[in-house]
Structures are given as structure tokens and as C-alpha cells.
Design the sequence.
């Protein structure tokens, strides 16, 4: 059960690895408008399930703390992420924001029934180093003039790691509530768009396809899979494995001609993969543990 849930959680990481490709192909739609559209699309699978099985609507009745945590996690993360990108260079802001997997691994020690070991931290740190190599294409130069952007990126990392860890504590809450989180995030993003941005619609059918893919997978199904994974799987392994997302994203961009291959990507692959394997030692040990002989 735990292995299956962990693998389902990992599919979210795989879907997030397509985020950059779909975003790059989606045209020039402003960030909050894109978020509003994509989260509306992302809620469709959940709405279909609820329509086909109306009895599941009762599962949406949850305490206020569950709704506050979910909406703050999804909307708060994207609001802070977009704020960071607007107020600091994308490379530096992205690196700071991607501290969240490390924070998940370290913070998991505070969860009931979890025990943090050295290889969890070492695996997450190796993944962080691999991510650094990926984003450090033209050099990292932190500048005090971008303090607002860096601060938003730092809060972004804490927001998503905090959401993931708190979600683990709501393990009895059905993943159906993610549908509500997506709808609320879409509405809040729409309000931000109307107040801060100029509306821009896709210019081609290809851009609409990219936006549909973005909403159905990286900004849709991925959140359902992540919710199920962190509630029922190995959150420490998922945290360390999350560093695979920027690596896979870069490899996909290279494959589709949006980026150039380099030795940095190859070495990052070794660090991220090795870190994930290191962090997953407990799972491997459970699989190879010999059966106890009957007396």
C-alpha cells in the first residue's frame, strides 16, 4: 500500500517535469490568467468523479483548517512564485523556491511515525546540488536589489513544504477535496488577473492544446496524485525524489529543442538520481528483507 502510494506520488513529479514545456508552448498569456484557466481545467476530473458519484459530495464537508491549508497551499504557492519571478531574476528565484523538497525531508521528522535519518538529508542535499547545476547556466548572482523577489521565493518554498507536511496530517481526508482547492485557486487567480494584468488569449490552436495539457496534468492531475502520495506514501522519499522534476524538465526541453545539452545536465542527472536512490534506502531494505523463518 505504501509503495503504491509513493509511486502514485511520484507520477506528480513526472507531470510537473512537463510544466516548463507546456508553459513555453502556451503563448503569452499572463501568469495569473494562465493559473486561473489551468486550475479551472484541473478541477474537471474531480468534477466528473463527483458528478458520476454524487454520494462523494459529502466528502467535501471538511473542517475549515483543511480548506485553509489546501487553498493557501495551492494559491499561496503560485501567488508567491509569480511574485518572485516578477521581482527577481528567474534563475535565482527558481533556485530559492526549489528549497521545498529539502524542507519536506527535514520537516518530516516532526510528523508522527516518521524518523529522519542521515541518508534522507544527504539524498535531498544531493538533489539540491543537482538542481543548482541545472539553473546555474549563466552564473548565479544574488543581488540585494531583488530582496523582495528572493523573500517571496523563500516563502514560496516554505508554503509548499508546509502544505505537503500538513496534508500528511490530514490523511483521513479524501483526495476529492483537491477539486475544491483547484476551483478556489482558479477563482482567486482570476481576481488577481482582473486587478493586475491585461487579458491575452492564445493565438493558435497549438497554444490552446498546450494550455489544456498544462491544466489536465502539471496543474491538474499532479495535485491529486501528490495529495494521495504524501498522505499514504513515503513522504521522505517523495521529498528527495522531487528534485527529479527540474532535471526531467530540462531533459524534456532539450529533447524538444528548447534547451541545449551540456555536461552540467549529465552531472546533475547523477546527483539527482543518486540522491533519490540514497533517500529511498528504507524502501529498498523493506523489499529485500528476508522472511522470518517459522519456529
Sequence:
Amino acid at each position: 500500500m505504501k509503495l503504491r502510494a509513493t509511486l502514485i506520488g511520484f507520477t506528480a513529479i513526472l507531470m510537473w517535469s512537463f510544466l516548463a514545456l507546456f508553459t513555453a508552448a502556451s503563448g503569452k498569456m499572463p501568469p495569473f490568467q494562465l493559473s486561473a484557466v489551468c486550475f479551472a481545467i484541473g478541477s474537471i476530473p474531480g468534477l466528473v468523479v463527483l458528478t458520476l458519484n454524487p454520494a462523494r459530495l459529502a466528502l467535501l464537508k471538511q473542517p475549515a483548517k483543511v480548506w485553509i491549508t489546501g487553498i493557501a497551499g495551492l494559491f499561496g504557492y503560485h501567488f508567491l512564485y509569480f511574485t518572485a519571478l516578477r521581482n527577481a531574476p528567474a534563475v535565482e528565484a527558481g533556485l530559492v523556491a526549489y528549497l521545498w523538497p529539502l524542507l519536506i525531508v527535514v520537516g518530516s521528522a516532526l510528523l508522527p511515525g516518521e524518523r529522519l535519518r542521515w541518508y534522507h538529508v544527504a539524498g535531498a542535499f544531493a538533489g539540491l546540488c543537482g538542481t543548482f547545476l541545472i539553473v546555474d547556466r549563466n552564473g548565479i548572482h544574488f543581488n540585494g536589489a531583488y530582496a523582495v523577489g528572493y523573500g517571496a521565493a523563500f516563502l514560496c518554498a516554505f508554503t509548499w513544504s508546509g502544505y505537503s507536511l500538513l496534508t500528511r496530517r490530514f490523511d483521513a481526508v479524501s483526495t476529492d477535496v483537491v477539486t475544491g482547492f483547484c476551483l478556489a485557486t482558479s477563482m482567486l487567480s482570476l481576481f488577481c488577473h482582473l486587478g493586475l494584468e491585461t487579458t491575452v488569449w492564445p493565438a493558435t490552436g497549438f497554444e490552446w492544446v498546450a494550455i489544456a495539457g498544462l491544466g489536465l496534468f502539471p496543474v491538474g492531475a499532479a495535485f491529486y496524485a501528490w495529495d494521495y502520495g504524501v498522505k499514504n506514501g513515503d513522504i521522505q522519499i517523495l521529498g528527495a525524489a522531487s528534485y527529479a522534476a527540474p532535471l526531467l524538465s530540462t531533459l524534456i526541453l532539450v529533447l524538444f529543442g528548447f534547451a541545449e545539452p551540456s555536461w552540467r545536465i549529465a552531472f546533475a542527472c547523477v546527483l539527482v538520481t543518486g540522491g533519490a536512490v540514497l533517500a529511498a534506502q528504507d524502501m529498498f531494505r523493506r523489499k529485500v528483507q528476508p522472511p522470518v523463518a517459522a519456529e
Remarks:
- The two ends are 28 Å apart (CA to CA).
- The longest helix spans residues 205-232.
- The mean pLDDT is 85.
- Residues 69 and 134 are 31 Å apart (CA to CA).
